[in-house]
Amino acid sequence: MKQYLNLYxxxxxxxxxxFWEKNSPDKSNGGYFTCLDQFGRVYDTDKFVWLQARQVWMxxxxxxxxxxxxxxxxxxxxxxxxxxxxGRDKNGDFxxxxxxxxxxxxxxxxxxxxxxxxxxxxxLNKVAPCEEYAEIALKTFENILKRKDNPKGFYNxxxxxxxxxxxxxxxxxxxxxxxxxxxxxxEDKVKSLVPGVIHEVMEVFLQEQSGLILENVxxxxxxxxxxxxxxxxxxxxxxxxxxxxxxxxxxKDDSLCQKAIATGLKTLExxxxxxxxxxxxFLDILGHPSEKLEWNQKLWWVHLETLVFLSKAYxxxxxxxxxxxxxxxxxxxxxxxxxxxxxxxxxxxDRYGKVQLPLxxxxxxxxxxxxxxxxxxWKSLEKIK
Length: 385
Prior knowledge:
With about 375 residues, this protein is mostly helical. Helices cover about 50% and strands about 10% of the residues. The chain has a three-stranded antiparallel beta sheet with strand order 3-4-5. Strands 12-13-14 form a three-stranded antiparallel beta sheet. A two-stranded antiparallel ribbon has the order 1-2. Helix 6 runs parallel beside helix 8 and helix 8 packs parallel to helix 10. The mean pLDDT is about 95.
């Protein structure tokens, strides 16, 4: 596995990051373009707030963890300035999308805009301390905690009282976001939050009988035999397991570490397409037809997050099953998602591994999963003796 170290490092620093530095800045209005075609040309100018925030976080993190490159810091600051000026409504909630000039397009119904904004401003404050950055990060985090039981608020389209479900996505994100916020939060605050998110991920959404994580459960934690309740997302589950691995190492919790590895491997075996290769996007836990028409697509982030999980698990434990799976996922991912003709990676394949959309960025794909995945794998491989 160690032989891959330079491959991941060089792909990150020589190809992927320069692609976003060159093609994404909006030099007229501020912020970043994320709708980039195969060769980096802008094909749509709308700006999606969670992707703006993810890119701020990415360049602040690189400045902190790789090298103090002033260009990276300035790049992060430019995105933050755009978000400060345009990103929030009067209540401090972050919009979902803006037009090129920063006028709001879609209301702040999506709490993940806030999650990644808090993450971005906390990371930027760490490398460029600023009262405004810290205040935005903390206020946004507090807003997230206030909204966590009803994230969409009055934007929620479900009828109340008939089938009340809660989603895995938010506790999953909080398990990572809490650590990202650590430099700004009091130690007691972190210690009070972490056990709750671990419990939600590993005991509420993790189904004991199957060993798999559900995307939605009833508010009391029980199984809902419905389209939403039967839904599983192997990529979400595996990504959450590397968050659990990070928490297990921070708090020296070996039982959490072992349970996370077992869950991740179980999910990978379950989610792997044994006929054509790659990891399914969605599955129905009872084997019924999925409500998601894109259920059998193969997506970039699912495979990169799986490589992060496997590299971390192997670096911590030397588990041979993790090594075997890493080699298998690495081969599939680099063969199918890496573009041989232009930097950055494809995002969307059909079941058979054929590229469906040659874009490098859009409404859902930005400067995040590819560079973060490459960075995380590189750093995990450095720890292998």
